[in-house]
Design a protein that fits this description.
Elements (H helix, E strand, L loop, with lengths): L13 E3 L26 H9 L6 E5 L2 H6 L18 E2 L4 H6 L2 H15 L3 E6 L1 H6 L3 H12 L2 E6 L7 H16 L10 E6 L5 H11 L4 E6 L4 H5 L6 E4 L2 H15 L3 E3 L5 H14 L3 H29 L3 E6 L2 H13 L3 E7 L4 H10 L5 E4 L3 H11 L3 E4 L4 H7 L2 E4 L10 H16 L3 H8 L1
Length: 447
Amino acid sequence: MENVSVLEERKDFILYKQNGCSGNGMRCDANSVSGAVSQRACVYCGARVVLNPITDAFHIVHGPIGCASYTWDIRGSLSSGEDLYRNSFSTDLRESDIIFGGEKRLTAAIEEIATKHQPKLIFVYATCIVGVIGDDVDAVCKTMSKKYQIRVIPVKSPGFSGNKSVGYKMACNAIMELIKSEKPAKRKGVNILGDFNLAGEMWIIKDYLKRIGISVISGFTGDSNYENLLESPAATLNVVQCAGSSTYLANRMEEEMGIPFIKVSFFGIEDTTSSLIRIAEALQDEEARQKAIAFTKEETSKITPLVERYKKNLTGKKAAIYVGGGFKAISLIRQFDFLGVETVVVGTQTGKKEDYDIIESLVSKDTVILDDANPAELEKFMKEKQADILVGGVKERPLAYKLGIAFCDHNHERKHPLSGFDGMINFVKEINGSINNPVWKYMEESL
Ligand code: SF4
């Protein structure tokens, strides 16, 4: 595997950082190269990531059963109310449906849910095969919506219709479809976009905002529900955490509802501090700004002794990062920098040019930056750069373990929060526990 070479068509998506910033950038935000075995998920999965955490929504996956099982209960989004969202409903299309059409099965599935469960909101995901056979999902949803007086919203997400980013966009369109006609009275407060309440992270952010006197109107989509989402047009500011999945929604809400937005990140001390202060500034709320300064100072001083203790074990180590979006990669580079850990490989599934420009400005010379990587590339560059730890998600975990490299799960399956000051402690403990675990010594001996 040492000699694995990068596919010719993939070379433009990989960059070795040079002195300063090249300014030429690298290719990104494009469809995956055929045959490259991308780590990305499909369009449907991208849409499901965004919409799944709405706690009282029903999700009907119109397609073969496999598409539904792909996301069944593997997400760590928590709920303070309903837990319906943990289920997938599938039309389970078979061969005869593919030949004669699947609209009847979709109609039956919606009718079953409408009569048995009295839903307020149903999302219907069109998967690959539905895109091929051309079922009129829009028409079925419209008819059922009218018949049962509920919201039945189509999500156009055939897996082959683009990449995971397209799925995010389709989910944002579905959310806009839900909220665009709502006109609640305006009130001072924010919507949080792009936080999915993984291990309760939305609750941490809401608590911080409450402590500095800022109210949260709605959240997209962690621990949200139908009624709460309809309130979102009342907000005076949108704060966007996962920019990759939610900037499109923020743009539409700005254009169509006049709600401005700022991008934030609550990963790491530096980004959490600056995000809270910037939110107060964007709301032109001097009292909240002062409170944010005082609060972040106090929280930082509370966790500093523990972080400093672990820092001694980590300084001089090397990290590889491969995550979904650019905002998380940027925060992670800063977090590692703070801990004295050098980022030697960094990539994302759906980063944009502006994300990679920031990444390039943050990392040291010769760091490998790559977009839409595959396992062979990750293996090659982690070995070449002698990374001590990989930060990634469920698909990257086995790769790291097989190579005898420590791993930190920073994706949707994890069970502990990594955002805010509380999350920084969890992050440092996990990085330390994984990098300095004695098991790696035995791995080296047996490899
Ligand atoms: S939508 Fe297509 S690519 Fe996605 S899980 Fe279903 S069959 Fe696979």
